[in-house]
GMC_OxRdtase_N domain-containing protein (Trichoderma simmonsii), 496 residues
Amino acid sequence: MALESTFDFIVVGAGTAGCVIASRLAKTSSTPRVLLLEAGEGNNGLSHMVPGQRGTFWCSDAADMLNYRYKSVPEVELGGREIQIDRGRGLGGSTAINILGWDYSSREEMDEWARQVGDETWSWAETREVFKQVETLHDDTPAEFHKYIYSKPGSRGTGGPVHVSLPSTWAPGLELLLSAAKEYGIPMLRDVSSGDLGLGVLSMTSYNGLRVTADSSYLSDIPPNLIIKTESPVARILFDGKKAIGVELTSGTQYFATRETIISAGAIDSPKILLLSGIGPQDELASHSIPVTSVLPGVGNNFKDKCMVYLKAHLQPGTVPSISMSDVARWQQQWEEDRTGPMGVEPCRIATGYFKLDNLETFTEFQQLDEQAKQLLMRPRTPAYEIAPGIFADPTTGGSFFGTPVILMHPQSTGKISLRSSNPAAAPVIQLNYLQNPYDRRVLVESTKKVVDFIYNSKIPAVEPIVGLTGKTDEDILVQQSPKMNFDHPPYLQVY
Ligand SMILES: Cc1cc2nc3c(=O)[nH]c(=O)nc-3n(C[C@H](O)[C@H](O)[C@H](O)COP(=O)(O)OP(=O)(O)OC[C@H]3O[C@@H](n4cnc5c(N)ncnc54)[C@H](O)[C@@H]3O)c2cc1C
């Protein structure tokens, strides 16, 4: 093995997980030689770095090279529709295209995770401290808004590599949204990272006029013992018997690891690499004539994804000041000149929150679940659904609208990632099975009804009907609002 192709550790995929692991390993006191391999490019351009385009970039043409844009197989419960699965490509992975929302998870989620893996390190008490070490929160909230946002001194991070902002500017409409929610009776949180359930203001991973990505946070000061190779898609893991000893790229180039080979290529590509390496269900490996390294039936199975619907309602004229496309062009120009203006400092605009459904335990669909699932869902802080509402001025129409995703938490349906062929260049087969379990259908419909009621019966000046929802029955909601990962009405398209 040539020295230049041999490392202590090889890390595959430079997304969130890969950037953190490679950088932390390389900075340990023994200074191991670490190779980080990324399929995509270096993402050195700036088109993805504009904070004000956080909600538009991933679905724009400019993101073509940074987004795999996978498609699911036609979904039975969604009338045969295919769903677009967005995944980031290049340094930073999905953080190069994501929507910049940042909050800690809910208390109960982490405690359940710790229980499932039998390791207290994953409990809320311990992970909360890690979240704090990871972030530097820049909270510039003016005193007049402290009634809506306030984190207890010492409860958030001040020295971590991930810069998170709560800017001093608030989008027109945010205060209306929060006061409407409070008056309607929605439980409110002044710190959405407290681990509790309720609605509060969402912070963003943007700072100094730029998007914050996994590579800007973890690869900005790389030591010489960390080598990064982009445009290096890994085809398979190399083995000596059952011991992983390195990887082979699609080009045929091989790299070797004397210590460990770490696969961190994301929830879809990691199982694909394992399957191509002969690790997975025997019948699937056989069907593609892939020699078996190790039979592991779970690889690619039990894929869980939180599906969502998007509710959008136009608002009465004058709810927020109107903006035009020429305003947007001017702001973009300003950002290009000096990274300032509304494109550089995206104002606080979106609220976020996790909620329970009061009557969950009375649903037949809940009662039919197994005991373990029921125990988790009944815990006081296990959410049934999540929302992220905002009020947006739309420069394409001069009007404004209220919009929110309604996201199903703890889906009981499970999907599957499998191989299309033994060719590493082929996209994997993604079977989501959204809403296959009756519990998921019931909870998504009931949660959507709750949000529909808020839209029509709070002081939000919404114009009926909600876009695309002409009826209010369960069937109307299921058929007309069925999950949209590839939004039919891109929610933030050119909207600020
Ligand atoms: C449109 C969108 C919006 C989102 N919004 C938010 C948000 O607001 N807040 C939030 O917290 N999360 C959000 N997320 C999710 C979040 O970004 C991801 O959960 C997170 O980045 C996943 O990290 P990862 O390391 O598992 O995978 P990724 O970040 O996806 O990284 C995987 C990397 O592996 C590389 N790779 C794949 N195959 C190979 C191969 N064969 N060889 C070498 N490299 C390979 C990929 O190119 C990629 O760079 C969003 C995601 C998307 C797509």
Q: What stands out?
A: The longest helix spans residues 438-457.
